[in-house]
Amino acid sequence: MANIAVDKSIDCKGLSCPMPIVRTKKAIDEMEAGQVLEVVATDPGSVADVKGWANRTGHQFLGTITEGKVFRHFIRKSRPEETKPEQRFPHIVSNEDLIQKLDDGAVILDVREPAEYAFSHIPGAISIPLGELEERMSELDSYVNQPIYVVCRTGSRSDAACQVLAAHGFQYVHNVVPGMSEWQGPTTQDV
Predict the structure, then answer these.
(1) For residue 124, what are the domain limits?
(2) Model confidence at 1: pLDDT above 80
(3) Residue 169 pLDDT
């Protein structure tokens, strides 16, 4: 086990998106530039979430150490001139709007972790966890000129996924908010 010196450590074990990021933001705000924060989490989605948040806000993501089912993420707080305000993806649709589009053959990308998807997902949704999106982008090439509706549990991971897709040339991307946590439409499961 690596012993890395940190200035602050926060325990996010047992929490799921978006809570590890909410706590990370609060902890970083209370630290001085150059200090290192450790975020301890058990949510596999935190691997992509913490790295993505750090990159979007200008803080330095140092890395993740995985110890069994625990993820230790390390972030160095940047100087104020190095940071940038967190941008939210501008194209948002509600759960209700997406329900209306289901009969039209909407392309739905579910970026939750495999276990979340397996137990409940929108029928026909494509499962690519946020942490795998960059490496699996070619699986979506045939949809580059079609509307894609991106869903996660709360709209946080899907926001990051929308930004990744847009950066890769996908023009018709929509973040579904609030996502599966309040989804009232049809679902299916793979278990």
Answers:
(1) 92-182
(2) no
(3) 95
